[in-house]
Specification:
Elements lengths: L1 E3 L6 H9 L6 E2 L12 E2 L22 H16 L12 E6 L5 H14 L8 H5 L3 H10 L14 H14 L5 E8 L4 H9 L29 E8 L1 H6 L7 E9 L12 H14 L8 E3 L6 H15 L8 E3 L2 H4 L6 H15 L1 E2 L22 E2 L4 E8 L3 E8 L4
Parallel strand pairs: 4-5, 8-9, 8-12
Antiparallel strand pairs: 1-6, 2-3, 5-6, 7-13, 10-11, 12-13
GO molecular function: 3-oxoacyl-[acyl-carrier-protein] synthase activity
EC number: 2.3.1.179
Pathway: Lipid metabolism; fatty acid biosynthesis
Amino acid sequence: MGVITPLGNDLDTFWQNLVAGKSGIGPITHFDAGAYDCRFAGEVRGFDPALYFKKKKDTNRTDRFTQLAVAAAKNALADAGIVEPLADPERFGCMIGSGIGGLKTTEDQHTVLMNKGPGRLSPFMIPMLIGNMASGIVSMEFGLQGPNFATMSACATSAHSIGEAWRMIRDNDADAFVAGGSEAAIVPLGMGGFAAMKALSTRNEDPTAASRPWDKDRDGFVMGEGAGVIVLEELEHAKKRGARIYGEIVGYGLTSDAYHMSAPLPNHEQAQRSMRVALAKAGLNTTDVDYINAHGTSTPVGDIAEVRAVKAVFGDHARNGLLVSSTKSMTGHLLGAAGAVETVVCLKTINTGLIPPTINLHTPGEECDLDFVPLKAREAKVKVALNNSFGFGGHNVSLVARAFEG
């Protein structure tokens, strides 16, 4: 597993900061945000793309979202003990998506067009900005010649990536995948656009307290950036090479609201179905689930809708033994990278018996009465964890991970 996040650029640092309840959110440094309604975000700090590319010149030919993806993929492959050359590169796939793609490249090149004319546009503009390029460049960097494409479903993007990679391995299209997502939208156009939707928190006086899922004073989500990648393998392939196995992906549910561009159904009926489908494919009952890493973005409407969905699916278990938390309270919302990073979180809870907290949850809002593991991490045995990811456009994905028992 590999992550590049506002809480750290390696798995151990990320996890230590997460269970410590630290916030990775602060004033924006990527550009002067003084005139913006929201002037803070969850930025990746101390990131040097040259450390991850074979050729330094390639850092000038890739957008930041691709650079973050390459770094997370390199970390994941190293964590998996996979080094080049691959034994069978044609059986190793790559599926890394992005919700938005190369927004900084789009913005920068539009400025060039307006100020200097079309003759001054970069010949690398299109390859840098298109959303599939993270998956393409990662495959080139590591010689992955199996199935390769990119999902793009807003905040459900990397959950779709992992689910579709899982499906393709089951269909024998590949033995292994590098799967996940990446996002780098903390640029003027991204911050201004989400603010225009009234989607972002404006708690500029206290950024670390701005992402507060299920709290009565929540006022919108906090933008984050980063990448999450997992190495997903067919079981016998993993065993044969003596791989360390963090857990099994056993269920994948995906549905569509077919309702609204950005708002969920009031009771999140299709999110309910997504969770039910994932559990059915896993052959599990609702009472088997120990932990949910919720979508939990800190929006007034979305948080309640997800709570209603969880209550509808899990019944009495929702209030008796089920633990739920939102790590977006610490990382911000990583958009297309969120599902993968949060799947990593689910697998780490299984392996460590630690549940990351929902920080900033001081006074639960109306209907928000589940055990959200407020403020401090908690020790708990986790055998089964579920991750929810919901995206603009009505995309719903649920992934179920289970402890591997040999």
